[in-house]
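STRUCTURE:
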């Protein structure tokens, strides 16, 4: 058994080469598959939809509602989760029985560190370094965005937006958009607050809320001068191997904002 420290500073012991892995985070599930670990993945959440073959794995619940009975039947030798996407109570319960490695990601640098660490703990170091190299190279192709004040929305009823100290906020900064919120994490907003913020750009994420034309029209009434764009939330918020695809998407999005 190797002793390692996760991104929360928690020390745990895991097998030198874990063979029964559960992933509790969609973006990290995709990463594990891209590292060639499909045969060693024995459980995922119902939200783990990439790649398609992930849906054939045993479902262990949602990201914030674990099925402990199913997990006990699987007998994992490694569980991989995330501070933000999973719930603390459930993780504490799992840690009493199993090695649980947790990520904590609010920047591209954190994401690259997570990818490297998962490569090390799953004995796929070469693959993880290849993915990191591809991500870094792709981000070097980013075209300069116009510097505009941006509001990134993820929910309706109530409106919920992306604030500081989040991975999405770091992606906005990376493409030169200025988050018009000073609040931390994911604040709720009322109509009057959105109007008073006067964002130049409003981005509506494709997940977790399915924004439609109705919401676009509501926002146009609140901020008539704003450019409102539906965006692929996965390419802003998934911090695993999908990051390879983000820069090409961001460059396409740039053309809508220039």
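SEQUENCE:
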């Amino acid at each position: 058994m190797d002793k390692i420290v996760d991104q929360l500073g928690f020390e745990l012991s895991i097998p030198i080469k874990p063979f029964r892995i559960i992933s509790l985070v969609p973006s990290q599930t995709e990463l594990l598959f891209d590292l060639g670990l499909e045969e060693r993945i024995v459980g995922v959440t119902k939200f783990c939809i990439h790649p398609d073959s992930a849906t054939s794995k045993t479902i262990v619940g949602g990201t914030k509602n674990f099925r402990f009975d199913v997990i006990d039947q699987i007998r994992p030798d490694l569980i991989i989760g995330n501070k933000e996407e999973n719930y603390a109570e459930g993780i504490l319960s799992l840690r009493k029985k199993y090695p649980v490695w947790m990520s904590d990601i609010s920047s591209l640098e954190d994401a690259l560190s997570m990818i490297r660490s998962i490569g090390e703990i799953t004995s796929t170091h070469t693959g993880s370094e290849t993915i990191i190299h591809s991500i870094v190279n792709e981000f070097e192709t980013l075209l300069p965005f116009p510097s505009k004040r941006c509001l990134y929305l993820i929910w309706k009823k109530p409106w919920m937006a992306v604030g500081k100290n989040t991975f999405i906020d770091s992606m906005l900064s990376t493409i030169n958009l200025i988050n018009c919120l000073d609040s931390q994490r994911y604040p709720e907003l009322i109509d009057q607050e959105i109007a008073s913020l006067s964002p130049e750009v409003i981005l509506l994420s494709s997940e977790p809320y399915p924004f439609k034309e109705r919401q676009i029209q509501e926002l146009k009434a609140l901020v008539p001068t704003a450019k409102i764009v539906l965006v692929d939330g996965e390419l802003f918020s998934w911090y695993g191997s999908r990051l390879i695809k983000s820069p090409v998407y961001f460059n396409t999005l740039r053309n809508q904002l220039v």
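REMARK: Residues 152 and 203 are 5 Å apart (CA to CA).
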